[in-house]
Design a protein that fits this description.
With about 500 residues, the protein is α/β, with parallel strands linked by helices. It contains 15 helices and 19 strands. A hairpin with an 8-residue loop joins strand 18 and strand 19.
Amino acid sequence: MSLPITEDDFVRSLADAIRFISVYHPPDYIQHLAQAYEREKSEAAKAAMAQILANSRMAAVGKRPMCQDTGTVNVFVEVGMQARFATQRPLEEMVNEAVAIAYTDPANPLRASMVDDPLFERRNTKTNAPAVTHVRLVAGDMVKVKVAAKGGGSENKARFAALNPGASVTDWVLQTVEGLGAGWCPPGLIGLGIGGTAEKAMLMAKESLMAPIDMTELLARGPSSPLEEMRIELYDKINALGIGAQGLGGLTTVLDVKIATYPVHAASKPVGLIPQCAADRHLDFTLDGSGPAVFEVPAIDGWPDIAWAPEAEGLRRVDLDTLTREDVASWRAGETLLLSGRLLTGRDAAHKRMVAMIERGEELPVDLRDRAIYYVGPVDPVGDEVVGPAGPTTSTRMDPFTETMLDATGLLVMVGKAERGKAAIEAIKRHGAAYLIAVGGAAYLVSKAIRSARLLAFEDLGMEAIREFVVEDMPVIVAVDSDGTSIHSLGPSQWRRPEIGVPAKAG
């Protein structure tokens, strides 16, 4: 008879796993990204990959989160029919206890992003619980756990379609991926679930992302089934879209495409698509009653020796404390800048509150005229850090506020990640402003450019409060210049490869 699995072993193992994946990339992701880095011909995309790889190594050495968005915890639990838990508590209760322990560890806190009541109050739970837990009963006497931490930027790009049985999944995937933009922080993975029902397709897509990355091996040996042929076709054609790292244009957008299938009603073909970002965080462990799981720290020589640092030669340095509209007007889309000086922070909740104050005729708590604002929600600092990992958040969420902010406050520069929508670009052009991007997936590296941080307003918003950073040589790319030219349109159009058989770009 199997040994009972104790509450402590389950909770401790899961909490340790959550902390582990916040710091360490799976070796297969690093291996495939390093190979893509070596192949890349786009200088902008190659530089972005270099930052992601250097950030990953720095996070592993410093034992700090690789990304400021430490994600929603997803847990898949397979319970053997003969397995025994020495507890009277519900499984989800133990999962959520593990999440709370992992995210509130004072020695290395993770960012709490979960809000209770999705419709109205949206109040932060402060522990990042609850997790999203799925349980399956299987044969055997052990418990297998798969855990992932899914960032909001990639999760928001999940898509579903109820296709007709004769429709092309490949065509739908290509059209869908091209419409996702760069908010999911490529290069990463695409997970597909095909068949079953709507919820089954999405669940398969999510779980497929936890399979090992094996595209290099698959390409080397060749496909052995129609499903593997489809994976290769989608891998080639998605990369031929030219989206590239961070949407800057390049050869590699995805490192792998995963596909899971299930029998389906004859009248149906449900397809779920979920992208995985550059913060590819997941692992699995098994409990048999003999004690908690132990996770082996990967050897640091598993990372390529890429010590990215901003090079002064050829890069324009920008003093944020003396910034003028004339300065901004001289920047061009695709140019790399090094920012130094005082940089404000603020994202969704802060923008919503400021716009509401403007509409009521109230004075804002901060003067934004001729200033730059960074869309970021950092991790809390530890030790001698002034701020924890502080990578950018997806900027399109601020698009509804952009016209009001530029018009009413005199704000001059915005910094985030991914593309901006048409209305936001028009507002940027109309007001002679600019939009810059930092590399998503390089949060720990970016934080090293931040010399000090102080709270200015909206303390109740937690990680979404308005702060003032003092930065030194913070690397950014001009994504939308004052003429309204967008690198997220220019870059992919230059690297698109129609000879691979990708469809004509819509619009």
